[in-house]
Amino acid sequence: MWLNGYKFKFWLSREIDGKIKTVTVKRDNIGDYWICIAIEKEYKKISATSGKIVGIDFGLKTFLTLSDGTQIQAPRYYLQTLKELQKLQKQHSKKKKSSNNREFARKKLAKLHKKVANSRRDFFHKLANKLAKEYEYIAIEDLNLKAMQKLWGKKIIDYAFSEFVNILSYKVNVIKIDRYYPSSKTCSNCGYVKEDLNLKERVWICPVCKTKHDRDINASINICKVGASTFGIDGVRPIIKQATIA
Questions:
Q1: 68 counts as catalytic
Q2: Which residues of the chain are under the pLDDT cut of 70?
Q3: 141 annotated active-site
Q4: Which of 166, 216, 228, 243 is the most exposed place for a label (fewest CB within 10 A)?
């Protein structure tokens, strides 16, 4: 490949299986060049044909809680590399401005940030593929991520909920329910709403039907039910964990 009079070798990461529409060459902040090819082709989601719908609750203690009781933890890649990032940031700030040493330190820091982002994205794609093969519909809450980031800061950035939802939406039918629906406070067994439920209460007992709830599982069950009923999906089987009476 020739670019601005220079010859480059490139690695074709995947086969081009469509009609090429545009070709864009980009250079990232590390100095690597990327060839971005936009193609036109018929796209089909890989979602299952099982007719199953599952509700998912995003949380701070657990990344995902499914309405069948499954809980999925996300590797916190940013937290795992935080000490190394801070060390490289300190080294970069100490270098003389406009010097070669400062540029070298900047690239080293940028490479680590890129590694964190790539590791997180790889985990998201693998998880989304797994869910898409098992469920035809996935119901989630329409989260107010800006407000959540103000409250919990770097933890929300590390979990990158919005990036995961975007990836998931390409692979399966995602149904978003109203963010103001009290999924955690509503008893999934009888419908009672516990208005005074606070964030520290991880387990609560419904005063009406005496059902003992795990906060996150209860929320995901409600999300699943509301997702199926609100959008009028016929012929689907909600996947929920059966409530137990205390």
A1: no
A2: 1, 3, 43-50, 149, 231-246
A3: yes
A4: 166
